[in-house]
Structure formats: structure tokens, C-alpha cells
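Reviewer comment 2.1 asked that we show a complete input and output for one of the modelled complexes. We chose the adenosine-5'-triphosphate case, as it is the one discussed in the main text.
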Amino acid sequence: MLELVDLTKRFKQNEAVKNLNMFIEKGEIVGLLGPNGAGKSTAISMLSSLVEPTSGDVRYNNKSILRNPGPIREVLGMVPQEIALYDDLSALENLQFFGRIYKLKGKELQIKIAEVLEQIGLTDRKKDIVKTFSGGMKRRLNIGVAMLHDPEIIIMDEPTVGIDPQSRNYILETVKRLNEEKQMTVLYTSHYMEEVEFLCDRIYIMDQGNLIASGTKEEIKQILSSEHTISIKADRWNDRFIEKLKNNPTIHRVKVEDREITIVVPKEVNMFATLAKMAEEADLELRSVDINAPTLEDVFLHLTGRALRD
Ligand SMILES: Nc1ncnc2c1ncn2[C@@H]1O[C@H](COP(=O)(O)OP(=O)(O)OP(=O)(O)O)[C@@H](O)[C@H]1O
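Response of the prediction step:
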């Protein structure tokens, strides 16, 4: 339905997006994941015809939108990273204002606003002035604004940045519900692995303007299928034990935290006996040794050598 073809954006010397290829099918929730500066916002600005690409194409139902952005603008709801609301107006007044921009009026506008307020859980607070809202409530209202014209596709640019966990869960649940109940197609950008893992059917991972992986969650995790992550817990560590881990040639990576050490080893290697022996020799008592299924966070670390929120 929506396709990015060899899309590139250059800002002077800086190539923010390099030859990006992506597609989004009707009814999917697609995740676009990457750290700060990866090029996510630039990519979605081109997709929604707000920024002109340096080269490449954006196609909606097989037609380029570059010269004719009308059709995509009609069906697109955009939730920007920055909150775009009038602070001195109530939630209701904001929705009325933006609804009129979408050319909704009268009874139709009223019905739509009531529906949106329900969806974002702000019916009880509709008469309150936005500046009295928490960050999470403002974000929810921002999403409500983007939904007023019943968009076929909604693009959310990091909608949970800087809000409390409760509001975050509410937003994630709302996105999931909208997709299930209204078959809304969603492109969700984030730098939180667990959000994308919870929401999305398919995932694209960007880093420094490049697409570094894409596929279903399962396909992406397959990238790590040759390795296991093992977490080792103890009340304290000693240098001898850490030294042994670091010097063991089968162990690929060692990450030491307060009470937990994470190591990465080839899948076929059974480390339990080795770890027990190392602990004994280092005079250390282990609390537990667990093999973890790989997460998307592990995939990112594997592909880039950096944690996602570095
Ligand atoms: N208008 C602009 N002019 C010049 N450089 C820009 C512009 N917009 C983005 N960039 C640069 O392009 C790169 C990608 O930025 P972009 O905002 O797309 O990344 P992002 O993945 O959305 O990151 P964030 O999570 O921080 O929003 C960055 O190096 C940024 O500085």
C-alpha cells in the first residue's frame, strides 16, 4: 500500500537517510526502530510528504506522491514528536479547532470528537485546559487530534517519549486496540525495543541513516539464532571470576552489572559446568545461571555493537 523506494535525504554533507526501502501493508503495525539521529523522523517526514527527498520515491497504492501528495495527505494521520496543541484551550476546544481544519463540522464533528475522546480516555477531562494536563494526557490528546479525520494510516513519531509508565501503557494499548478494532494501519517509531516488540508485526531497524535489519520479530531474532545470552547472578563479584570470563575464548561478550553478568556464547556450547567450575575456582557463590531468549535489544547490540539507548 505504501512504499519507500531507494529513498535518500541529504542535508548538506549529512546523509540523514540513505537508500531506504520499506513497505507497509494495509492493517499492519510496522515498527521503525533506531537510536537518536538514526533518520527515523526524516524518513517519516518524506513518507508523509512534509520533506522532499534528495532522491528516490514514495508510492501510495503504486502511485508516486512526490508530485501529487493529495491522496496520501487525505488518508494520513500524523502524531508528531513535539506536542502540537493549544495550551490555553480545553481538550474539547483543541479537538474542535483541529476538526475544523480537517473540514469537519456540526453534528459530524461532535460525534467524531466524542468517539475520539473515548478512545484516548479523556472524556471526563474534556473541559479542562490543556496546560493542566500531565505529559501523558497531552500525548493522548495529540493522538486524538491525528485520529479526527478517521485516517487509514497513522504515523506516530516516538509518542511515548518523556511520559510516565501508566500513560505509556495506555498509549500502547490504545494503538493495539485501534489496529484490531478499526484495522488502522500504523507506522510506529521508537527507540524502545520493548514497545516495538509488543506492538509490531514487522520491524525495520535503522542506524546512522541506514536500514540495518528488517523482517518479522521472529525473523529478526533469528539473526541471533547462533548465539545464546546467559545471565549469571550473584550477591557480589570478584576480579578473579570476571577475569576468567573475559579470558575464556568461547565467550563472545561479557557485560558486568551490580548483581548480574551477561555473557554471549555460541548456542551449541553448554556453559553450565564451565561456569560452575570457574565460580568454584574463584571462590564465588553463584545465585543463578539462566539462558535468555534473545530480545530485539540483543539484535541491535549484535548488529551495531552499541546498546539502543547509548
Ligand atoms: N532539517 C535538518 N537540517 C539538517 N540536518 C537535519 C535536519 N533534520 C534532521 N537532520 C539530521 O539528520 C539526522 C537524522 O535525524 P532524524 O531526526 O531523522 O533522526 P531520528 O532517528 O528521528 O532521531 P530522534 O530519535 O532523535 O528524533 C541527524 O543527524 C540530524 O541532525
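The chain has a mean pLDDT of 90. We note this here for comparison with the apo prediction described in Section 3.2.
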